[in-house]
Amino acid sequence: MTASAWIRTASDEEPARLPLVSLVVPAYNEGATLAANLTTIAECLEPHRARYDFELIVVDDGSTDGTYLAASRFADGRSDTLLLRHESNRGLGAALRTAFSRARGTYIVTLDSDLSYRPACAISMLEALVEQEADLVLASAYMPGGSVANVPWQRRVLSREANRFLSLATNARVHTLTCMVRAYRASIIEALDMSADGMEVNPEMIFAALRMGAKIIEIPAHLAWSPERTRGTARLTIRRACAHTLGVLRTGFAYRPALWLGVPGLIPGLLPLTVLVLLLLRVSPAAFAAVTLVVLVVQYASIAILAGQTTVFLGKASIARRRLSASRTRESEGASR
């Protein structure tokens, strides 16, 4: 079924067009599993075609394996599927921009091609987007109620801590910023400033939406790598880990420059190091006292600022957990009745 599907209104006078949902699936070197995963996605959408019309947009981001061939075979004969291709690997951000430029839907949902998040999550996000009149809905593995499974521990720790830092930058308004599994109103995407080509596009888009005052909500989600992905993923090198960390820090500090005020408090031994340098330079007693006092004041003020920001962050996270617990209790009591 394509975007030309119709249903009859109660008056039977004027046909009402079904809301069109563009489902975007970027793919890179997923040839072994892509066809099966796209079929799973299509089957998941089928029960919801009475309420929505769907178009599936697959972007092959310069794969070097059989990804394009697998996607072509899946798309063959399907009028609701659009296959796009980059000649070279340009990154997730570039793949999303290519898909968004061709998407026709009122709502746009992005899913990962390896189904680390279940396809049903797309429908849950879409329903939350419509029912709560949000601009952006995030699948969140790191919010209370979310979970992570079968992800190598190095990547799990790196992802968790990256999201904690980025969440701190949002003052705990958002828990998971690095995940691409989301639902958008098309109007918000048109207004967002997207420039990153790589994975940094994920927090970049959230920060841009926050600046605009967009309504962003999260739903708990389960992130689980398949055995195939776990085996096939390249080992995380120190170089890649450092590059990822620097990218996260750059993005977070760019959104909330006030975080820089907490950096001096994180430098261990700053005061003894300053004293040692001053002794080696043989500065005058007056200069020694002045510089030491300034460093002391800056570091302790920085620690105080960092402690304040962390306290607010932890407080909001605690409130979110209590709300989730209360919600589950109400649901349990309702079910028992």
Describe the structure.
The protein is of the alpha/beta class and 337 residues long. It has helices at 34-45, 67-75, 92-102, 120-131, 153-169, 186-191, 201-212, 227-232, 238-255, 270-281, 285-336; strands at 6-7, 16-17, 20-27, 53-61, 81-86, 107-110, 136-140, 147-149, 182-185, 216-220, 222-224. Helix 1 packs parallel to helix 2. The longest helix is centred in the C-terminal third of the chain and has 52 residues, at 285-336. It is elongated, with a radius of gyration of 24 Å.
What's the layout of helices and strands?
Elements: E1 6-7, E2 16-17, E3 20-27, H1 34-45, E4 53-61, H2 67-75, E5 81-86, H3 92-102, E6 107-110, H4 120-131, E7 136-140, E8 147-149, H5 153-169, E9 182-185, H6 186-191, H7 201-212, E10 216-220, E11 222-224, H8 227-232, H9 238-255, H10 270-281, H11 285-336
Parallel strand pairs: 3-4, 3-6, 4-5, 7-10, 8-11
Antiparallel strand pairs: 1-2, 6-9, 7-9
Helix pairs in contact: 1-2, 5-9, 10-11
Could you provide a short overview of the structure?
With 337 residues, this protein is of the alpha/beta class. Helices cover 50% and strands 15% of the residues.
CATH architecture of the largest domain: Alpha-Beta Complex
Can you tell me the overall shape?
A: elongated
Structural domains: how many: 2
Main beta sheet strand tally, sense and closure: 7 strands, mixed
Query: Which structural class matches the secondary elements?
Result: alpha/beta
Helix content: 40-55%
Tally of DSSP helical segments = 11
Order of helices and strands: EEEHEHEHEHEEHEHHEEHHHH
